[in-house]
């Protein structure tokens, strides 16, 4: 198969496209890849085609896995225990907002042929893009730490404590490189593997729902009633944790890169529109599956443990075969849950099988998100720095930062300390969200970059409001949580003040840059902020 490079000029913006040269229609085959590694799209008649949908299916599966990582599971079960079904609407709203932003991400990759990190490199001066890269690395490493924690706890549970937490952390290094071997067999093999992991999670967590049989009426009310009666500040922080664990910033960078794996002829408007549509529906199905599974987890633990005390759980475990001693103290305090304790409770309440099924589901979640973190990290490094590393080096880089602190916590502390680390990581990733949403809204709102696929007025308003709400939530979180802790240590307080100033300065710059991208006029304001933009002076 031969390929050629062409330049398509739109206004003052020129973008490079790779399009097929002299490929007959019958060469296109769904499920096959061409010499460049891209999955080919069947050239069928107009209208919906399942063959085309299958050819486009893949990026949404990886997103589905990413929306069900151990951080999500931790946030879900904590939500059920602390707030019953009352903040399920936050989970639903977060998933919908995530779908809105993922739609922009996939459109950016399809229309421009550049993923989000590459576009940041082209559109921002060196200092802002360096800051953005660091923030994305923080988010990716934080997510990777959650994957390490989830996998280690799952192995600890499934082995009946024979594999200690610190050894489980070490094992995650080995399994990371095992997944890279699978990547050698081709993109479609990797995507089918991810599909199997999604299937494992559907079966395992679905089983827990069937044996628990939560209240369907309360579940439905929690999804549609946007309020939380008699909820304290801990529930508010839990809601923020749900947002942070659901709308993860590096997923926006990841999705814009994954869609480039399909051979889309971007010189034809019809083909670009078709790709946008199929990728959106594939993403919609994936995120719907993630919403169902996350809702199941919330419902199971809301039904079983809301307002329960430790002694209540101990009484449930009496006479069971589950090793519950030293897990739940025999007191009347409200039960504090983590992924491990959740498995023990399920085993006590519903039988030993329920405990092992839970462990398998958590293990699948942790293993699946290993590769998504690898892909996201590689895209960020190649896009922001133009530094190309082989995947094994990239995995070693990210996982080293994730494993070292997690290993020491697992070795010298308890499983409860890992639970606290998980909550902190969810909050950290929530803080990074504006550094993905603001550039994404800016670029997809620029008519010079997106042409006729530029965001409409409604989309601009909605996505801008999403970014504003997230920033406001982060202000509330920092002021109500971290500031209280920082007041006890002047060094931590000084760091928090310095970071807050830098954070809001960067957010202000990104907002102004976004407004300049939305402007269609060549004003002084636009020229001031976009003076280094690539489309102003040279071809991409």
TrEMBL record:
One of its GO terms (cellular component) is plasma membrane. It comes from the Eukaryota. This is Protein Malvolio. Belongs to the NRAMP family. GO terms for molecular function: cadmium ion transmembrane transporter activity; iron ion transmembrane transporter activity; manganese ion transmembrane transporter activity. It comes from Cuerna arida. It is a multi-pass membrane protein. Keywords: Membrane, Transmembrane, Transmembrane helix, Transport. The chain crosses the membrane at residues 87-110, 163-182, 194-213, 278-302, 395-412, 424-444, 465-486, 492-512. It is found in: Membrane. InterPro entries: NRAMP_fam.
